[in-house]
Design brief:
Layout: E1 3-7, H1 12-23, E2 27-32, H2 40-50, E3 56-60, H3 69-76, E4 80-83, H4 92-95, H5 97-117, E5 122-128, H6 152-171, E6 175-180, E7 183-184, H7 193-202, E8 207-209, E9 216-217, E10 220-221, H8 222-234, E11 257-262, E12 268-269, H9 270-281, E13 287-289, H10 305-311, H11 319-334
Parallel strand pairs: 1-2, 1-4, 2-3, 4-5, 5-6, 6-11, 7-10, 8-13
Antiparallel strand pairs: 9-12
Helix pairs in contact: 1-2, 1-8, 3-5, 5-6, 7-9, 9-11
């Protein structure tokens, strides 16, 4: 049994991860600030599923709280930390950039410092497929250069990878960054396409279809994401003995540092997702076709070869199964 800190425990992925860790017998401390980026009630409802379970405790706190965060690490002495707390969303980063610096840079620094000073054996943290930015080579590989982000959100996630590497190098802290690809499923975020589409369709309202429906996304079911996180967390990052400064590999290091993609490895056109959703709901969507939004990319596609090689896992939930599970949850949760 390990003692694990999950930041963002009331969030979409954090909630599912905490459930899985508790089910296998780990002791979990969940930390979340319950902010109002999206409806707080959903976060509280997720949390209500966790509170009261054996081996779980919840702390309401912002990881950007420089005064209180050190005390949590000192008091708890975690074995592993999984940092999922972040300000999410590409489009919102155009409206409120300071929220991203506070949560994703200041907050992440506090997490790194807590790990450094308290003997944490492995820090696993959420990065994002957004770091691939202007890349056009498909599928996106962790061995590709990612120096051209096209949103502040992506830039802060790239910054997290750089900051983690620095701590791995200077202090020998094993760190692993996980680039998630468009996560969806039950208890999902209301600002994501699947939730927005479902809400609009059942209300008889039109949906906004960006890039005229030509978007392609590597939609990844949340259970696959959580399985990937768990396996990676159990596989402590190690130095790559073959790493060379003459031909530096971006995904590994001479320090205990790793980066992985977790994606379904099977991009889906937005119009196909909508069609599957219409079938599951038994309703047709009225569509507003719109131009691509600033900060968005036309397609994402994850190369997961390294994930398969190192932890023997490849996400594989079909979009039809995942959407059906989401719709079943949505109908039950909203009593539709």
């Amino acid at each position: 049994m390990s003692k694990i800190l999950v930041t963002g425990a009331a969030g979409f992925i954090g909630f599912h991860l905490t459930q899985k860790l508790l089910a296998r017998g780990d002791e979990v401390v969940g930390l979340d600030n319950l902010n109002d980026y999206y409806r707080v009630q959903l976060k509280q409802d997720r949390l209500s599923q966790l509170v009261g379970q054996e081996n779980f405790r919840f702390i309401e706190m912002d990881i950007a709280d420089r005064e209180r965060m050190p005390g949590v690490f000192e008091a708890e002495q975690f074995d592993v930390v999984v940092n999922l707390a972040a300000q999410a969303g590409v489009r919102y980063s155009l409206e409120n950039p300071h929220a991203y610096i506070d949560a994703n840079v200041v907050g992440f620094t506090n997490v790194l410092e807590g790990c450094r000073h308290n003997g944490v054996k492995h820090l696993v943290y959420a990065s994002s497929s957004s770091v691939y930015g202007g890349n056009t080579t498909m599928p996106f590989s962790i061995h590709h250069n990612v120096d051209h982000p096209i949103s502040l959100y992506a830039a802060t996630k790239k910054a997290n990878e750089l900051m983690a590497h620095t701590y791995s190098h200077l202090y020998g802290l094993p760190t692993t960054g996980l680039r998630f690809f468009t996560v969806y499923g039950p208890w999902g975020r209301p600002d994501m396409a699947l939730f927005l589409f479902t809400e609009a369709i059942v209300s008889g309202k039109p949906i906004n279809v960006f890039n005229n429906g030509k978007m392609r996304r590597d939609f990844t079911y949340v259970a696959d994401i959580v399985e990937g996180i768990t396996r990676v967390a159990d596989n402590t990052a190690a130095a790559n003995p073959d790493w060379s400064s003459a031909t530096p590999d971006p995904a590994t290091s001479a320090s205990p540092y790793r980066v992985y993609n977790i994606g379904n490895n099977q991009p889906v056109e937005l119009m196909h997702l909508i069609g599957v959703l219409e079938d599951c709901l038994g309703m047709k969507a009225e569509k507003n076709f719109m131009e691509m939004q600033p900060g968005d990319v036309p397609a994402t596609f994850a190369d997961v070869d390294d994930l398969i090689q190192d932890v023997d896992f490849k996400p594989a939930t079909p979009i039809e199964t995942g959407v059906a599970n989401f719709v079943e949850w949505y109908r039950k949760y909203h009593n539709v």
